[in-house]
Design goal:
Number of helices of chain B: 0
Largest sheet of chain A: 7 strands, mixed
Structural class of chain A: mainly beta
Largest interface: A-B, 18 and 20 residues
Largest sheet of chain B: 6 strands, mixed
Shape of chain B: globular
Oligomer: heterodimer
Number of strands of chain A: 11
Order of helices and strands of chain B: EEEEEEEEEEE
Strand content of chain B: over 45%
Helix content of chain A: under 10%
Distance between the termini of chain A: 36 Å
Chain lengths: ~110, ~110
């Protein structure tokens, strides 16, 4: 299957700082990338959808100024959590898809804000 | 609002038996259906996709789709302890071009008892 990587796999940051998470499709060009967040024992929550070269589409309730998404190429999307707070601590997962609409997930990034 | 429903479990199945996981969805125009496996602390892994009515088999896994009943299931034959995980049902709506979002169920936690 298609391979998606994420970096870093885990990060600890102080409250008020910003954190950037990278998502890469390694062996295919992704037409669309997605960012999810998952809290313990809860299901995936879609945060935003991004297409290369265009602005991301955010889900209702997700602050676009706080969660900045850049999709610079068909193989790279980044999520920047700005002015992070402890309540932003979560498991952030990206996924990528091609025209078949199957989504392949990265391994996830565990963010802890202290 | 589109909904995907699964029994949260836990579902306990003896090793070697058949595990049966069920999912219903509310949106009649849904056209693509997926099963993901998620181990604790890990990201989801795509294990099956199904697009037309009937059965689709891949190794020990069989996906079954009944669009008239808005029902999709996953059967795992010869269950192994390594199959213990949360299984997520996901539904995609391709009726709107470019809308590739997946709607996830909350997942069924499966435990295989040795």
């Amino acid at each position: 299957g298609a391979v998606v990587s994420q970096h870093p796999s885990w990060v600890i940051c102080k409250s008020g700082t910003s954190v950037k998470i990278e998502c890469r499709s390694l062996d295919f060009q992704a037409t669309t990338m997605f960012w999810y967040r998952q809290f313990p024992k809860q299901s995936l929550m879609l945060m935003a959808t991004s297409n290369e070269g265009s602005k991301a589409t955010y889900e209702q309730g997700v602050e676009k100024d706080k969660f900045l998404i850049n999709h610079a190429s068909l193989t790279l999307s980044t999520l920047t959590v700005t002015s992070a707070h402890p309540e932003d601590s979560s498991f952030y997962i990206c996924s990528a898809s091609v025209l078949a609409y199957e989504q392949y997930f990265g391994p996830g990034t565990r963010l802890t804000v202290t | 609002q589109k909904e995907v429903e699964q029994n949260s479990g836990p579902l306990s199945v003896p090793e070697g038996a058949i595990a049966s996981l069920n999912c219903t969805y509310s949106d009649r125009v849904s056209q693509s259906f997926f099963w993901y496996r998620q181990y604790s602390g890990k990201s989801p892994e795509l294990i099956m996709s199904i697009y037309s009515n009937g059965d689709k088999e891949d190794g020990r896994f069989t996906a079954q789709l009944n669009k008239a009943s808005q029902y999709v299931s996953l059967l795992i034959r010869d269950s192994q302890p390594s199959d213990s995980a949360t299984y997520l049902c996901a539904v995609n709506d391709r009726s709107n071009f470019g809308n590739e979002k997946l709607t996830f169920g909350t997942g069924t936690r499966l435990t295989i008892i040795p």
